[in-house]
Amino acid sequence: MIVTTSWIALFFAGLLEIAWAAGLKQSAGFTRLAPSIFTLIAMLGSFGLLAFAMRALPLGTAYAVWTGIGTVGAAIIGMALLGEAVTLPRILCIGLIVAGIAGLKLTTG
């Protein structure tokens, strides 16, 4: 049960990483108050959930999955909402990251 809960916490930690990365962009280097506060709260939540997940999951797996979720999500947000280039090589690389995340999940308890 604790391992399942840890995976769920890790998933939400990854979502919060996406949120704080997007918030960081909107904060303009912490020069805008509301996005800066949002970013700091999302960071605290993300790190807290990551720390909880690491109580039951291996360090390398938890950290790689957390950063992978954040990386994929931030790339998708950038392309979908911020006008970043959508190219086949970028999509293929995102697919490789997703495959890596899935592989880590499948090979870890």
From TrEMBL:
Pfam families, sorted: Multi_Drug_Res
Database matches in Gene3D superfamilies: 1.10.3730.20
Subcellular localization: Cell membrane
Membrane-spanning intervals of the chain: 37-56, 63-82, 88-107
Record membrane topology: Multi-pass membrane protein
Chief location of this protein within or outside the cell: membrane
Keywords, in A-Z order: Cell membrane, Membrane, Transmembrane, Transmembrane helix, Transport
SUPFAM superfamilies: Multidrug resistance efflux transporter EmrE
Lineage top rank: taxon: Bacteria
InterPro entries per UniProt: EmrE-like (IPR037185), Small_drug/metabolite_transptr (IPR000390), Small_multidrug_res (IPR045324)
Family under the similarity heading: Belongs to the drug/metabolite transporter (DMT) superfamily. Small multidrug resistance (SMR) (TC 2.A.7.1) family. Gdx/SugE subfamily.
PANTHER family: GUANIDINIUM EXPORTER (PTHR30561:SF0), SMR FAMILY PROTON-DEPENDENT DRUG EFFLUX TRANSPORTER SUGE (PTHR30561)
Annotated protein name in UniProt: Guanidinium exporter
Originating species: Teichococcus aerophilus
